[in-house]
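Q: Here's a chain of 356 amino acids. Please give me its 3D structure as tokens.
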Amino acid sequence: MTGEITTSPSEPPRSVLVTGASTFLGGYLVARLAANPEIETVLAVDSRVPRKDLLRRMGRAEFLRLDIRRPTIAKAIASYNVDTVVHAATSIMEAAPHSTAIKEFNLIGSMQVCAACQRSPSVKRVVLRSTAMVYGASSKDPSHFDEGTTAVREPKVGYGRDLLDVEGYVRGLARRRQDIDITIVRPQAILGPRINTRMGSYLSLPVVPTVIGMEPRLQFLHEEDALAAMEHAVLANRPGTYNVAGDGVVTLTQAIRRLGHIQMPVPKGLLAPITGVFQDLRSAKLRSSQTDYLTYGRVLDTTRMRTKFGFTPHYTTDQTLEDFIRRGSSSPVIGADIWRSVEHRVVSAAHRLVEV
């Protein structure tokens, strides 16, 4: 299932290069583009070799084992006369905890990609996979962030800070090469049965620590819609910056209860360390930079996604959570029927009090 495209696509690109081919979004995007017969050449770039099953899915796409922090990325763009560059290597944020090495990869790698695009006369489109983390999260934020809203409290560390800087590099490229169309996609928190994200790992904990007294409002984006939005950005060529999220909002408590897990309120300063106690070494770790998000939440305005970008996700936030629950590997600690029974008793008791 994919999101709905509400505007007719423009002429497809001829030669596409996708960075981050070993990640879920990068690799599966390559597979989708390679299945499109109107695209002559699809190049999958990464310093790591993708899994064998992912390589098979890529079909006719050519895999180039390159480190985007090296000048070899410019040689690849020139050699294959690339006209569209998709910088999806930032989707390493799906699972990897942020570190100095990751920051270096994001910033230096993105600078090299932008420099390579600037020098290549064949490049006409650049698509950046950014993130809703660039908006930060605080008690003074608006109810909905639109693309023109700047963070009240900009992220100082983590992926949000990295992608703010990367977006700056891409906009700088647009100023220097005004013949290049720039599309920046800012996906909301991604959930799905196959993708491994820190939010998915956090919600899958049997006991989920939350901040005492806070009820953050959350939006989710299904993994299939995230892929469809990136594919649409490549094919439809809608320059601009776009929030991408499923319709609707759920609170963190609602999400935890529907998963059948146990909520454990803790002081804000202890959220990250206590969550780390419950997560095993294979999980995508929660970091302190996410504490504000899980305290205050973040909701995106997706008007431009529909009216300008021409894309509508297939899954709502509620449906994304339901699919994550139904097809995910997490088992409920407390069944949904028990929660419904408790809620029914609470409502009945409240009605009796009102009648009295």
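Q: Can you summarize the key feature?
A: The mean pLDDT is 88.
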